[in-house]
């Protein structure tokens, strides 16, 4: 059970106004995103994330003593001391240049999460365990829960940005596997799916910046291989139920 100190830490997140390495090489770097986000909140909302009801969030697998609660890149300790998430991780998460700069969420000191240059840069991830590994793997991402996923260079880059992606569970593996997925759009859950270079890149994304994207319910055990489901449900009005 969460302690009162941890409860207070998580409550702080809701008030913010910010919304094994993969050996590959990025050829063309994507455009940098602006630092400021709109207020999207961070605490778990069952109405918003109905797909996660009765499921374990990623950090429930992490011992409470290993939680690092971050707000805009700063760790809030039960004692009231504020230090950088990088310092609080002590080499067990947020490892890499600007790995957790401006990161908001809960990351586990598991020697895997937020590893790589800008791996969790300016991202909002409520629950993160053994995920976001590789340079810019989760930079600018807006995801509720990541468990053993988002592994690879820019694998979840900007995923859910100004849209919504509830959960990545053992999915989004490979260079740019889920880059821009659900950007301005909606994907409920990606599980054991989207494995391969650009496997689900731009899925349910908007056609242009600030344009509403499409909708995909869930992706289960599918979209395996290079560009297998690239741009599925791309652009406003495009809707796909479950991909299985």
SSE layout and pairings?
Blueprint: H1 4-14, E1 67-71, E2 74-76, E3 82-84, H2 85-89, E4 104-108, E5 124-129, E6 142-147, E7 164-169, E8 186-191, E9 215-220, E10 239-243
Order of helices and strands: HEEEHEEEEEEE
**Radius of gyration over alpha carbons?**
16 Å
Which runs of at least 5 residues are low in confidence (pLDDT < 50)?
1-56
Strand content: 15-25%
3D shape: elongated
Largest sheet, spatial ordering of strands? 3-2-1-4-5-6-7-8-9-10
Q: What is the CA-CA span between the terminal residues?
A: 35 Å
Total helical elements: 2
**Biggest β-sheet, characterized?**
10 strands, mixed
Structure summary, number of beta strands: 10
Q: What structural category arises from helix and sheet content?
A: mainly beta
Description of the structure:
The structure is a single chain. The chain has 244 residues and is mainly β. It is built from two helices and ten strands. The chain has helices at 4-14, 85-89, and strands spanning 67-71, 74-76, 82-84, 104-108, 124-129, 142-147, 164-169, 186-191, 215-220, 239-243. The chain has a ten-stranded mixed β-sheet with strand order 3-2-1-4-5-6-7-8-9-10. Strand 1 (67-71) and strand 2 form a beta hairpin. It is elongated and about 50 Å long. It starts with a helix and ends with a strand. Mean pLDDT is 80; it is low at 1-56.
């Amino acid at each position: 059970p969460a302690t009162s100190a941890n409860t207070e830490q998580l409550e702080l997140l809701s008030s913010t106004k910010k919304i094994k390495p993969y050996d590959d090489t990025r050829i063309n770097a994507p455009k940098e995103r602006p630092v400021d986000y709109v207020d999207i909140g961070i605490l778990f909302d069952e109405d918003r994330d109905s797909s996660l009801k009765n499921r374990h969030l990623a950090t429930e697998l992490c011992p409470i003593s290993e939680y690092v609660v971050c707000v805009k890149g700063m760790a809030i300790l039960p004692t009231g001391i504020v230090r950088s998430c990088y310092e609080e991780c002590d080499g067990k998460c947020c490892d890499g240049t600007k790995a957790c700069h401006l990161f908001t969420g809960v990351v586990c000191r598991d020697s895997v999460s937020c590893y790589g240059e800008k791996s969790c840069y300016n991202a909002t991830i409520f629950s993160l365990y053994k995920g976001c590994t590789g340079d810019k793997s989760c930079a600018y991402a807006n995801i509720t829960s990541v468990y053993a996923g988002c592994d690879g260079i820019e694998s979840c880059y900007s995923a859910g940005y100004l849209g919504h992606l509830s959960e990545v569970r053992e999915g989004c593996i490979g260079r740019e596997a889920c880059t821009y997925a659900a950007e301005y759009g909606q994907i409920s859950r990606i599980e054991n799916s989207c494995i391969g270079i650009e496997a689900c890149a731009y899925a349910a994304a908007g056609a242009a910046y600030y344009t509403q994207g499409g909708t995909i319910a869930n992706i289960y055990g599918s979209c395996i291989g290079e560009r297998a489901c690239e741009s599925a449900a791309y652009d406003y009005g495009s809707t796909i139920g479950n991909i299985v």
